[in-house]
Amino acid sequence: MTEQELFKKLGGFKAIDGFGLPRENVAINPFTGLPIVSNAGQLATSMTRGIPQLATGFVDLAGLPFTMSGVVDDKDVFGSTAYLDSKSLLPPKQTGTGNMLAEMGSSMLSPPTAAKTGLIGLAGMAKNADTGLLGSLFKSSTPARIVNQTNKNSGYTVNMKTGKPVTPEKDQGYMMGIYKNSDPRNTVVDGKMSKKDVENFIEKNNVKLNNDDFYLGAWYDKANNKTYLDVSKKTNTLRKSVKLGERTKQLEGFDLKKGTSYKVGNWDEFIKSPEYADRLKYLNEEGITYLSKSPTSDWWKLKGTELEDVYGTENLPQIAGLLAATSPVSDVPRNVRIATEYLRRMKSGEDILQPNFKFGDNGIPVTYEGIGNQMPMETGRAKNLLAASKGEIDKLNREKVRGMAKALLGDDDAMVFDRHWANLSEKTKDNVFTGIEKGVFPTGASYKKLEEVIRKNAKKANITPREYTANIWTGYRNLAQTKGEVFGVKTAGEGIQGESKAISDIFSEMVTDKAKKLDIPRDEFVEQLKKGTMNLTSLSLLGNVA
After folding, report:
1. How many CB atoms within 10 Å of residue 40?
2. Based on the structure, what is the number of domains in the chain?
3. How many CB atoms are located within 10 Å of the residue 182 CB?
4. Which residue range is the domain that position 382 belongs to?
5. Three-state secondary-structure class, residue 524
6. What's the rounded Cα separation, in Å, for the pair 142 and 114?
7. pLDDT in tens, 270-294
8. Are 229 and 298 found together in one domain?
9. Distance CA 227, CA 148 (A)
10. 122, 141: one domain
11. pLDDT over 70, % of the chain
C-alpha cells in the first residue's frame, strides 16, 4: 500500500502550515476544505484522529518490542500512528485536556491500542522502580538503540544522562576518550556487539555516564572486525581536548563541527626531539647576540647593578623576592614599576600590604597604575609579598616566582618558564600544546620535565641553565616583538611592551626617564628612591595609607 492509498483509507485529513495559528490547532475539514478552529471543531478533530488508530493500533502493538527498546523509531514503522503523524496523514494533535481525552477515548475502542497503552504504562512503572542508570534511559540511549545505530553507521555517541545523541557536523565541540586504551573500563568486542555488551559497559561506568559532561561512545572498526566502547568527554577547545587525550594516551579525537578526526600531539616527546633542541640552540644564539649590544649581557644580574646600589646589598634577597613576586601577568617594565613601590615601603618601614593605598598622578598611560587605582593583584600576591619582604625565597609559591628570585641571586640551576616559554615550546600545526590555555605554562610535572630537558641542552652548549634559559627567552621575545612570527606561529608583535634588555638595564633607563619627567637631576631622584620617598610608578607619590 502506498502512502497516498493509506492517506485515502484513513480519511484524507491533512494539516496545513502557515495559516497564522499554531499547527497543532489547525486542521482542514475534508468535506468543506476550511480550517477547523472552533472548540467544537477541535474536539471533533481529536475524536476523528482517534478513529484511524483502531487500525494503526495493530501496527503499533506489533512494533512495540522494537520501538520501546529503541531499536527503531516509532515513525520508521510503516503504518504506525507515529509514522502517519510524521507524514501529516492524521489530523494534527489538538491541545487541551478535553481534546486529548477525546482522542484517547476513540482510539481505546481498539483492543490492540488498549493493550499498547497498558504495556507502556507497565514499562514506565518498571523503569521508575530501577534506580540505576539502566533504569532511566531515554529511547536514544537504550542498549538496543546503541547497538542498532553503531551497526548502521559504524559509530554512535550519546549522553546517557540527557539522552542527547551527538550529531557530527551539526553539534560543536571536541570528543576525547577519558581512559587509556588498556583501561579495563573500556570494552573491546570481537565482531559486532550485543545488547548485553552495552549493558555491562553501562553498569561498569555507571558513575561517569550519569554525568552531563561524559558520553558513551561506540564505533565499529571494519578493518579488524572489532567494536569499541568507551567514555568520552566533550570540550569546547581543541587544546583542552588534546591535552586530555595526551594524558590518556589517545591517538585521535573527533571534531564534531568538521565531522573529522584530529591527531593528539605529544608535548613530552616534542621537547625531547631534535627539532626542539634546534629551536633552543637557535634562540640561545639570538639572545646572546641581542644582549651583547646591551649594557648588561647577563639578563639576571643583580649584584653590582644600580638596583643593588639603590636598595642596598643587605637587601638583595628582598630585591630579588619582590621583583619575582610582582612578575606574574606583568611585562618587565610594569614588573619593575610595581616592585619599586614595595621596595619603597620596605625602605621607609611601612607595611608591605596596604589595602587602602591608591596611586596618585602618573607619568605613564592610565592602566593598572591609573589615578585612584590600587596595587594590582595585591591580595592574590600577599603571601609571596610578605615572604619576599623578609628575604624568605624558599617560601615563595610557584616555580616561576621562586625560580626568578633564585636566578636574580645567582643560582646557576635556576630556571624560569613563563608565557613566552609556553609559546616557544609548542608546535600547534601538529597539535602539540604546552598547556590547556595558550600562553600559560603549567606548574608541576610539565615544569620539571622541561627543566630536565634544559639541563641537558645547556650542558651541550657549555652554559648554565640560568643563563641558557635567559638567553632563549630574550631571543624569542625579541623575535616575537620585532618579527610578529616565530616558528610559523603569529605573535603579539608590537603588542609586547618594552625591550628585552636585562632587568637591571630596564630599571636604570626608567630611573633616567622618571627624573626627566619630574624635571629634577637624576642623582637627586636616586637619593629619593634610596630614602623610600619615591618610586617609579607615580610622578608624585600621593598614595593614601590608612
Report:
1. 8
2. 3
3. 7
4. 274-531
5. helix
6. 25
7. 999 999 999 999 999 999 999 999 9
8. no
9. 13
10. no
11. 71
